Protein 1
Amino acid sequence: MAPDKSQFRYEPAPPIPTYDEAVASGAGSHTVFEAPHSPLDATDHTEGHSLLGGTASSSSTHDRARPPRGYQPPTVETDDEGESWSSSDDDSDSEADHVRREMQEMEIDDSNHRSQSIWGKRIGRFSLPRWKWGWRLPQISLPRFRRHDANASLESATTPAANGNTNNSNNEEQPSSGSRFAFPTFGSTALFLLVGRLLALFLLLGFVYLIFVSDVFGNMSRRLGSGMFNPNDIRQYLESNISSNQIKDNLQHFTSYSHLAGTEGDYALMEDIELLFRKYGLEDVSRDTYHVYLNYPKADGRAVEIIDDKADNGKGKAIWSAKLEENDQATGLTGHQTWAFHGHSKTGDVRGRLIYANYGSREDFQRIKDLGIQTAGAIALVRYYGPHADRALKVKAAELAGFAGCLIYSDPLDDGFKKGDTAPKGPFMPADGVQRGSVSLMSWVVGDVLTPGWGSRENMPRMKKEQTKGLVKIPSLPLAWRDAKVLLQHLKGKGQRVPEDWVGGVPDVDEWWTGDHENSPIVRLKNDQDENEKQAIWNVYGSILGIEQEEKKVIIGNHRDAWTLGAADPHSGTAIMLELARVFGELLRMGWRPLRTIQFMSWDAEEYNLIGSTEFVEQNDDMLRKDALAYINLDTAVTGNTLHVAGSPVFKGLLMQILDIVRDPYENATLKELWERRNANDLEGLGAGSDYVAFQDIVGTSSIDLHFDGKGHPYHSSYDTFEWMEQVGDPDFVHHTMLGQVVALLLYELTDRPVLPFDMAHYAEKIRDWTGEIVPWVEDQAKNAKKDAVPKELAASLNSMIKASDEVMEAVRRFVAWEHEWQSSVVASGGWEPSGWGRKRCEFNSKMAWFETDLLDPEGIPNRTQFKHVLFGPQLWSGYDEAYFPSIRDTVDSGDWGLANRTIAKVAGIIKRAAANLAEGTLGG
């Protein structure tokens, strides 16, 4: 009978007792040993009985105590079940028993060490072997040397002490009592087996040596964490495991109370995210504290009033006061609803004549001036949106036009019932809806306005508020059109009738007038607030470390702070990011690891001026320039059903592949098909407005921002609630799920493809296209300014721009050819990456990422030195809008043609340098 293999599961085989031990209770008895023990005197039956816990009868297997959990007690069995061990003078029978036991031991060893290969991974663009989920790395078991107690037992049976025959001629010299092993005799089966095992050991060691010499471990051991999984299986897993219910639960929790940056609510949610990062299995989870300038409203510190101008020389009592606050939407929530105010607004209490100035652009204020209306000391009333959507630029333009204060309201024509249904039943702003927001000059100074260019640690130097360019110098407040209506009605008949394109949609305002410096009502604007120049804010980070290039990072980020409850902005993105952390954490527990590190980041104080992300970038700028491969941004991720993607051109090819996979269940079409139906042929440009700014524009990390937009949403108001999202924004959370799938696949491909999937050819094409746009624009501006031909110096600089774009095209063509060489080498090696090519592949990936970094100007844009990218970044007065070649556009707009010419030549030189660095050297095999 073959040995019971279940007895040998996991535990090494126990020593086989000697014959004397086996018959310690008497000849013919069947002794079962409870556990291995120290050698006993074979002739001392009493001691044997006491240590075995009773008589050694065949029934003792049923009477003995249960062994410890998981332990398998060894047994001594005969070849034939039920036959007892007994002494015999037949040496041939003993020798046969010995051989059978040797063979049984070999079968046991073989049964526990099935032949498996860990070299199932082949890399490249090809499909990998389909390993089942939960696959564990097989172990290579080396031969084990263990005590040969079967020989000892057999030999002891032939000794005089065992059988009484002292003259047996077959007796061999016995080993000394202290010997652990019995060396087999020449020509014996045991010697043959020993030699065979030694030869197998030498062959195995030689094989391992050859593996190390051939650099297979160097190229492949890094892949063991991820390479044992079929990429298609991982993609399917990511698609199928993004849970809409989990995203919904995340959103409901994170919108359960107000959490302005730096407040208790913000701190509580920071701790929640840190806890979830740890729960999901992320590594290196940490929080990061900065101390920055923030302001907060006071309960009685804000007022907008119409003053009786006939009493006390215009200093009389208020005849009307704005409500300012929205109807309470915070029923059942923790804490009170946040008050309506502007972040980073100027403290002040001012009075002046009211003047309406349309959207508050510089052109609008110039038109007021052209009408002969004096603006010095007046209060401006302007509406949101228009040519310059950035509210900070509206306030700054009013300041430069001489106004003492600025009020900004939401007009129904732009965001209200004139557009469609209003919140809470629709996407647009209701009558009492107030759009909060920051009025720090994001396109001038980004991050903490008192520490531009360096991380705002508590003990670091900082500017005074009066010194920074990032703050406006007049007070401002936001208004609902409910309150603006009264102000507009009081302007009737005063000043000038507005142009047709200045007429808004506020009801019950039958005539729209500008107002003037003599007859307009006097308005008081009070903005008294709490200010803290060293307010603590908190970022939270968590990682999944890469197995091949741990230092190389793909970062996904979303901000946590909100002006109100923030269902759409930002927590539609927060809910998705946390779900991605959960799903990737599950993959990590299964044994998968990416080639490169994934970092999840929760930013604080984004709403004030992109502070949390910018301070992190400025604190770690050298590391990010060297090792950050890509940044994925989630902010206001879902407000409707139309996908919009803005980003660096390197993402175009990969994005199209992913959109061709993810399907919209409502439309029964892929996202790529829907993308093409609306003629969205390319990625949108990155301007300013979310946390990608510092990554793309300061350290040159290729960035992408993704979101589903709708017709509108109650932006920065108290109506941006979980109930609004559940009923209007994304009732079934289908678009949250789809965006989660897109970003999950984007993360996976960027971190686990052997060759970084950057579309360098498309980037080269876009540089050529943008150059083809900027050159004629500059020529037109020069002709309009000079009214003659373009100066020769400027023409030469523009020509160098064209040549630079051509050099990028050629450099990229040569550069991407190496990937084809690498693929050919992998194919020629049967799917294996040959020795040395792994290092060159990593160098190739780094060069791709550094191309974006090489497009930085170390000195920055003139007068805005934080912004360093020569292609991307906000223009001085463009605010949120993208503006390619921002430094060229700024200097041309300034009218300083000498500076403009030098800037164009400098930009051309930077582009040429980036092309040269890309083409420099060779990565050939």
Note: The longest strand covers residues 283-307.
Protein 2
Amino acid sequence: MGNRARWRALTATGALLGAGLLALPPAAAAAEYERVVNGDFASGEVNPWWNGAGTTGSVVGGEFCTEVTGGTVNGYDALVGQNGVAFEAGQPYTLKFDARAATPQPISAVAGEAVDPYRQIARTEVQLTTEPQSFTYTFDSTLDFPTAGNGQLAFWFGGQSFDNTICVDNVSLVGGVKPPPGLEPAAPVRVNQTGYLPGLPKRASVANESTTPVPWTLKNAAGTAVASGQSTPKGLDPNSGEHVHLVDFSAYETVGTGYTLTVGADTSHPFDISPDVLKDLRYDSLAFFYHQRSGTPIEAEYAGAEHARPAGHLNVAPNQGDHDVPCLAGVDCGYTLDVPGGWYDAGDHGKYVVNGGISAWQLLNEYERALRVGDASALGDGKLAIPERGNGVPDILDEAKWEVDFLLKMQVPDGRPLAGMAHHKIHDAQWTGLPMLPHLDPQVRRLSAPSTAATLNLAAVAAQAARLWKEIDPAFSAQALAAAEKAYQAARANPAKLADPNDGTGGGAYSDGTVTDEFYWAAAELFATTGGSGYRADLTGSPLYKGASFNARGFDWGSTGALGDITLALVPTALPAADVAAIRQAITTTADGHLAQMAAQGHPAPYRTQDGSYEWGSNGLIANNGVVLALAYDFTKQAKYREGAFGVMDYLLGRNPVNYSYVSGWGEQPVRNVHHRHWANQLDPSLPIAPAGALSGGPNSALQDPISAGLLKGCPAQRCFVDHIEAYSVNEVTVNWNSALAWLANWAAEKSTVDTPPAACSVSYQANGWNSGLSASVVLKNTSAVAWNGWTLKFAFSGNQQLQHGWSATWSQQGAEVTAVNLPWNASVAPGASVTIGFNASSPGPATAPASFSVNGSTCK
């Protein structure tokens, strides 16, 4: 779910036709092509209609009713409209609509251009009464917007001294000779446009009507055939609506660039074969978050000159800013908050706790997973182009902290009603248009009411942060943990404060009717950090305990139970080993379901809904299901899961029915025109396209914007996509989709080569015991010929000893088994080098040394 874009409205700079429109003769033969989307408001949704400044609208009783603030001078000072309306020069159009007003007043219906210079085609003024009236007008278009790009239909309500409520319904605009464009066929041969890795499957999908195998040829950059074979007919593929063949050229392993695959007369985009094809995507996908930072300049030193911009929302004109922000009208909080910083959520300027929560968690989990079962060295200090590099803290943690700090600011202050709860979001009071750089946003900013979901997001992420910063910054760790525990108790005291689903003006509503999953997630994070018995009871007593949240659809900002389970599967706790095993089994079982689904598809993607449709942000769900496949490999080392996770990257990078790489800057045909207010080159050539590494939301069967609704009506699920800046329901970007990509891209870079056997090691153990305890020093030595980039020590106590305190590592105990994981500063151990760690434990019996030790799974001498 994301924002609803609003283009700048028509202004008086256009030619006014006025009442003369009424005198136009009826069109002789207007074509029956409907140009307006959602004109009857039967769905109960306003979208894709928008409200301009000074108006607030919603669907009431099947009508689109707008509250209009009086005191405006011009009609266009208060207006509603729809963009992406197609007009063809010289063609006749018939406009019909019903309208009424609480207080009689005139309004104008205006057809024209949505962007500068805002030319008008036709305008008529009508007088509304308190009773609904039907209006019909015919005109010829003087402008040409045949592809539904910059055309607009608007109703002007301003120019009156009094407040009013105006309702419209049954809006229809019929005309033109060209039908809505519909789906354009994509090139038939679809590959991962970035490339394939040696030792992994190399497969392509081909749209081809043949019912028998067809020949294929793999060519190198010089055009020389290097491999050939026959395709495998897959039959009709429901997700693409095409007959699909599969091509498998996995046997070809020669590293090179510029390969192409030819099937009949059709040739793919070029691609590489190399173990390094995905190495840099983890950094590009993480760079997205620096670009989205609020309250700080985005500097050319880090982002490049093209994407540099001033700081936004700092209470510097024309901004009204993120300092001293009051609550939304109707939300009586009695205070203001200073909430600068954080990440802009998507293509708008809103900042949402529930979306920021999962995004920050995923970056932190990316690092924590690498610490515990992977390689954290690639995420260390100096790896990202951000101002904090070189400060001794892993850059990914610095980036995540930018958002965590903001989340903490959203907490209701002590001494106030609902103290400890978190405000759901902050954004503009009204939608802004495109393009709009953050420092030019003139809208006032407003806090939405606190919600239980937002509060639990804060509790979960702050508890996770407390765990990861415990050794890095103990003061911040303590601050985060105090905020987390306060938030959790506030949520328990207010378990049903749900976000208003109608609070969608100026920013997305992000409403969530079920918070059982957020409670589970927060309890899991707090238990993993503190070991508290109350959190354990809440966790184990939840119906979601032991992996019940994992499913075929996947997890996202509104379905967060799986996040808690991922933490419990990775972080050692005092939970029974059998329960942790059950969580890991739920992950692998779900991963098996994803693999079965992918095997049945023409363009494999691990995602499915009950009705087969695709949702807003389907690519984010697909990437998160790739995370499940990746974790299944981490826990089992079974090659099928590694292959499946890389198959997800194939889909996102071009092996899909629209033949786009959904990641900007990656592949031969990447998305360029993502929905964004300052990556708006399609609207303003002086502005940039998206930087490399931004993940488009991808196919959405609901087509919830006028561009996609006009172009893609009737599309099969995986083809409901167009690369257009105003197609926000299919081509938006958000922090939580990019956090999913970043997690998966880092894993893929790490796993681009097969895991090597653990390095050799030796352990020296010395303990001093007394009647009730012992203190031990442990020296780990790297006896192999390669450096350790992260280590995990495991051993078992020989008696009933209980770990009490440890140093120079993250220590935990589960049953008799003890685990010590490196800290950031001692993760790297060169060949022949050693690292010394230690612990204190209670010891009812003699301080007998453990029978054996292992480092990274290898038994030490």
Note: The chain has four domains: 18-175, 189-273, 321-660, 761-859.
Protein 3
Amino acid sequence: MKNKTVKALPALLLLLSLSPSAMAQQRMREAVMIKRYAADTLTAFPTKAPLFVKFFSPPEESLLSRCGVIKALTGRHYILRQLPADSTGRKKIQYSYTANANYKATDNLLKQLEFLQPGDSAEVQLSYSGEHFTAPHVRTLYTIDRYHAAVVKLQQRDWPALIAMGNVTGANLVRHASPEVIINTINPYVNRINVAQQQFPAIRGKSVTVSVKEELFDTTDIDLAGRFLPSALQAKTNNAHATIMATLLAGAGNSGANGLGVAPGARLTSSSYAVLFPDPDTYYRSFGIALQNHSYGIGIEYNYDAEAVAYDQQVQKADTLTHVFSAGNSGAAIPTAGRYQGVGTYANLTGNFKQAKNVLVIGGTEANFQVATLASRGPAYDGRIKPEIVAYGQDGTSGAAALTSGVVALLQDAHRQLRGVAPSSALVRALLINSAVLPPGKGPAYTYGFGSLHAAAALTALSAGRYRQGTVLPGNTTAFDIPVPAGLRQVKVTLCWNDPAAVLNAPKALVNDLDMQAVTPDGNTWQPWVLNPFPAVDSLLQPAHRGIDSLNNTEQISIDRPAAGNLHITVKGKKVTTTNQPFYIVYDFIREPSFAWQNPVNGSMLAASQPTPLQWETTYSGAGDLAYSVDSGATWTNIAQQVPLQSPYNWNVPALFSKVWLKLTLTDTAFISPPCYIAPQLTLSTGFNCSDSAMVFWQQLPGVKGYQAYVLSQGVMTPYKQLTDTFLFIPKQSTASMYYAISPIAPAGWEGPRSYASNYALQGVGCYIKALLADPTTDNQVVLTLSLGSTYMLKSINWERRSANGWTQLGTQPAGTSTNYNFMDQNPYEGVVQYRVRLERQDGKVIYSDVSSANILLQHDILVFPNPVISQLIILDKNYRARQLVLTDMSGRIVMQRTINDIQEYIGVDRLAPGVYNCSVFLGNQRIYSRQIVKQ
């Protein structure tokens, strides 16, 4: 009894430290937990039924393992198969009950059901065993038989009987996905996408079809058109978020630099995320899909539920199919259920499908590689490392996932070019994880996984063949030798495998447990990096340490300054439930000393007068001086001094049109960049858009040789004409495309950046005329304002006003170089006065503007016309006010009554019989206008 009192003391002290209101809230929460999960019987003896148990404090893994965990409800509440057999273990238990069947349901579903009345209805997603699902007192709305899932509708009173059914294995809310955050730009420098595209120009994703699972993207967008494959699963509505995701992933760059995605050659298809389960296998097979992007989320979920099981099952079966998920933007949220309930801002992934083992979950960073505050982080519900890697996604993790999917498409395309087949998704994950960049001096962590995406390093490892494939039998070991050169700063090896799906709500998702070990030539043994999954903030924050990993189907070993010779890698099948388990290992070397420019790379185009990040990768430490040269290094202009080597430097690029070299000078050496270019970006404007031709123009740049015009042809911006003038005529009869772009050509022959593609028909310019406005003045004159797109070949501008006999010329003036003109009509007539402009060209062609109108009241506050009227009365008023229009026939019967609010109203009178009517306008009860009108 004394020992029991000692064990209860921490909980007692905690209660004593709480305020009365806090104590009451805690007692209420505890009562809810007991009511939710406990049967009537308090358990103090062995039982075959599951047990609802609360510990005084979070228990250690070894104790839980002995008790047979069925489900972690919180860090202290568990559903167990049995109580500890030893008295020491039992003294750690605060109470235990026989559990009811509610443990099979999610916490969020139970909360919703508790708010309902017995007669209220609810929709529930069920997981079931057996071939088909039936149950009394429920209505099945639909089933997904391949994943043994059903959505049913039932009354709240029927819930206990339903969840207690033996064939019901799990239950959840019917959840609906939504985009995480809209991303509006791409930065290819942070994750070395620009380096990958420059070093591997033949790898563009052309052999890959990517599915974007969410709403439908804009299939007519010029960066996506021509590569879209329609499917029966696509959503019926377009979504801007989906368009941006598709563009980040595979945009062709036709619209401009921000429209160039990671894999611009990939084909695209779409499926709706109305169903959160994986799409049917036939969908992936029929389109040849080996990659699907998921930039969406639902609420924070903490368990290995039906969707997570389904994705693991599908990937393990398909093997070459890679799913990429955004981690979510709930990084500031504290979990409210599960093992990590209340344990700081951890374990807040948005959706249980992101708890799957065989998928990639991508977190988000800022441009400086720091994890974004709002980016969701791990661990997974069972302590696994999630997200696997992070990437820069402006304003969220949606873009981070899309960019990573683009890199996966490049890896898949490269593997097909090298091997003729699609790669295993386990190999893809291993390549991305092994090449990811960890913070200096750090190991894996629950915030950033195994590091930041490095596109170029992943492609380099694949093309260099720095990977091995193997299989391991139960209890057996497979070994590899990797030749390690001398003078390395680090060698890194990553093991990945596609693991069989665990059972629904498994307390630990890992099924086949493989153990990797490395032995260096000097005889030292190295184990993988592991993290402390214990549900406490200080445990989750602990640095990675070396140990045996029995949680993850990814293991990584890194060795600093390894001895030269053969690195002996062994993979042991510690626990393999299948006949054999395929796996992949990927390895890479960091040499010392090393330095490589990452931006700019060879041929980079830097926008003049715009900031750009200067980036490099190096094993050097300290700081250096930056400078640039425009004369092949003969002279250098200072940029900045003592720039830290471990951070990028944002350079405000000067206003140049020149070939440029950059230099970073250290104490005893200097590194000169490959040649790059600085040039302004031109802007296209529409001069005119007439029936037979159009004209676009741009600003003149000093020092250029000419300009290269591009036209959108068959989905690609294609060279059209070289020009020395600053305008381009477009004959519509021979050129159907409306999209054009322009780039400057230097005297040395190199070409500057292409302008954004412009559709000349969408710039608000007609045949020369942008707009004609007619604005009355306070003294009843009318100011006419004309805006033109261009005055090329224009001779004169003629101002005209409509009169009873047609159009009358008010004045004329010669066309000059200005595109804006004004004219004053000093004597307009009363009513709606209409104006237009007549343009005369030097070749005699005449162009008319649209009609513009002004309302003029000279003698009256209110004017009603025309009179006689045929179909429509116009009412003009000097003031905005609510009035009543009343029409009566000659016998005094009201035939029409309308409320009018604007200064100009149009009233249809088509249905009135021909005749004479009294027209009155009332302001409140006061008649302010009265006159007879004739309806013809």
Note: The two ends are 107 Å apart (CA to CA).
